[in-house]
Amino acid sequence: MQSGEGLGFVNGLRIAVMAVVLLLVSLVLITLQLVALRFDWPLRRRLPRHWHRIALYCLGIRVHAHGTLDPRRPLMIAANHASWKDILVLGSLADVVFIAKTEVSSWPVFGTLARLQKTIFVVREEKRRTGDQVNEIAGRMADGEIVVLFPEGTTSDGNRVLSVKSSLFGAAAAALPKDAENAVVHVQPVAIAYTRIQGLPMGRYHRPIAGWPGDIGMIPHLLGVLRAGALDVDVTFGETVDFRPGDNRKSLASHVESRLRDMLLAHLRGRHRR
Questions:
Q1: What are the residue boundaries of the Phospholipid/glycerol acyltransferase domain, all occurrences included (predicted)?
Q2: What are the pLDDT digits (tens) for 98-122?
Q3: Is 192 helix (H, G, I), strand (E, B) or coil?
């Protein structure tokens, strides 16, 4: 009993220390980011990556990257989506911009962080605004920013890839230069797999610790992650698809879904070499 209480105290102390460290670092980086945004410094694109890396360290999440990010532009990343932690994971690997549902902008803390990273907020239910939203995404890509799309449209339990929706792939079509020969937008599938907990393989039963289907509150889930200890995440950069004028969005969505599923299952079943 004493041993259990002792472990509980140590774990609680660790959580408290990490929370304080993350809070202090966040205050410093948020201040710098506000200034960088105000004066449009290039630093505004790089600061979020540093914050994501520090946040992952405090949460005990280790990221293992496989493959490389395509250096060509315009580039859209299409990734599977299991949790809010996916944003930290991808944000730690590259200077990216995320597409999120508009409700996120009003979330305490997380909404502020999303706005500071210049997240693109979309209203999925209002079809009359789809054109404006697609044009904003296309404009950011045309400016050389890497846009991250979670084409499943929601979070899963981390064990599978849900059906990929083709609608927002319209941004890839809108980003095609109208007056250039051989116009192309590069779409790179990226699979995120939560594979180990405290160094041991994570089975289907424990993967909800990493995944966030949405029926659990943000704070309880965050505390559960902190209590769980070290998590390992494998991120695989797949082969890029070149999307050209006249190409079909549904075909693109089908291909991306197939690649994401293959890459995810390869990690979950232990078939991918580290």
A1: 75-195
A2: 998 888 888 877 888 899 999 999 8
A3: strand
